[in-house]
Specification:
Chain lengths: 250, 250
DNA sequence: CGTGCTTTTGAAAATCATCAAGTATAGTGG
DNA sequence: CCACTATACTTGATGATTTTCAAAAGCACG
């Protein structure tokens, strides 16, 4: 079980969130995440229409901005930082269902309520879209809708992979899979990885405790598959070996 | 670990699959799954266009028809029977990612390959659509595309629920959740459930062994939450109690 | 340079898996 | 209709991986 009393989850008083309601309509064209999942398919004209709907926000580290079960009033696009998506059980057990970095799109929801919660891990920049307005825009921009379907299909494939991990992989295999998954997104040189999230988040993502995660890091390190530098920086020393572990090859 | 040597997975010799390539264009209007996810949104005229693309198939029990990693050439709509969707590790460990009954849509895939395998549990009737042709039709039928997005969002929510189950719930809670999930689809009277899949499938779906699944059934039964009649028929005796267990309330 | 939080490490405990029979159930052929 | 077989399911004893509990070591921040 994983209790996380430190998580505030105080939705009645969302303090310190900064919103820019009247931002210029050209901020999208210069956006860090311009080539991201959503906006990448739009030309300059269409993206201006999208931009007119967007509100930019800054969420401070640790702050939640989507509550499980709440009315789904907005879509979000992450432009900076990392977000954790999760579900919780009444006694505090938490399952992180995904991490969302720059370019990731949030808010695909059934009916009208969110099926997950979201919190900023570090300081996060978001683009917020009113759900009904964006839905209306979808009718005019079939390319956008097509793209959304691709995103959903992609998320679905990832979710299935994660189910395999959670249901059938050992602790060591889970951590190896997690690192392999993180690798393609790495920018800081080949084989170098920065972990934006703490151990507790990794644990709740791959269905383990912090202690077992820590031990698994130790095993992978002692086997020469990875090198660890502090808690957040690491180096993949044996790519093929790590992939083999991740894929369940003994 | 769960080895399933009985699973044939012989893709080179797909025997006994029956296909009706030249079915009439009105079979959709009388289809059992007419109100299903996909077709439910189309009027009689549009559904005729869909029908012209459809091939009806019969897959015998135990037979596979989608292979993980294979080229995604078709979409499928289940019209009768139950399908298991799964992923496997090289050593035979299997994770079932979902069951698909009448009305369920299969084949949402990233890029051009399937990310999962599919097998008929009992004898299954399918509607098969050529992927490129259906994709082309999507451009003309925005309602269909909208619906597909809804289906995907729904699948995604289910997947997140399943991650919570696999990562954080106990054996007893997993089985209770599984049964609760099955309940709304039950047709055979209130509180009565028919389990179309064997214990091994339940085990590989909720990340346990057959033995633990069997014991969990025993626990729920001895607590008076369910009644068991044979292996496939059961009755929910305490709905609120079972839901409480499923939701992780002690 | 404490103070608090995160991470690591160690020992004990627990849940679930594995191994091993034994019991139903369904399908087959006499 | 009844053995007979094969498969599925259940039950029991043992064992292993992971969790839990506990404490020490690192690190960041005032």
């Amino acid at each position: 079980m994983s209790q996380h009393d430190s998580v505030p989850s105080d939705w009645s008083r969302p303090r310190r969130i900064v919103v820019h309601p009247h931002c210029g309509t050209d901020h999208c064209t210069n956006c860090d995440a311009r080539q991201s999942s959503l906006c990448g398919v739009l030309d300059d004209h269409d993206i201006t229409r999208l931009a007119s709907l967007a509100q930019q926000m800054v969420i401070p580290a640790g702050q939640g901005f989507i509550e499980d079960g709440a009315a789904a009033e907005n879509f979000y696009n992450v432009t900076h930082g990392t977000v954790r998506l999760y579900k919780m059980l009444p006694d505090g057990r938490r399952q992180i269902t995904g991490f969302a970095g720059p370019g990731h799109f949030l808010g695909l929801a059934v009916s009208t309520t969110y099926a997950f919660a979201a919190e900023a891990i570090d300081d996060v920049n978001l683009c917020r879209f009113s759900r009904p307005k964006l839905k209306a825009l979808l009718t005019d921009l079939p390319a956008l809708e097509r793209r959304l379907l691709d995103v959903a299909a992609n998320e679905l494939a990832l979710a299935q992979e994660q189910m395999l991990l959670l249901g059938r992989k050992t602790a060591r295999e889970r951590l190896a899979s997690f690192l392999m998954h993180l690798l393609p997104e790495a920018e800081s040189g080949p084989f170098m990885l920065h972990l934006p999230m703490p151990r507790a988040d990794i644990a709740d993502y791959i269905g383990l405790t912090v202690e077992t995660v820590s031990r698994s890091f130790g095993w992978l390190k002692s086997e020469g598959l990875i090198g660890i530098d502090g808690a957040t920086e690491l180096r993949v020393r044996d790519m093929k070996g790590l992939r083999a572990v991740a894929d369940g090859v003994h």
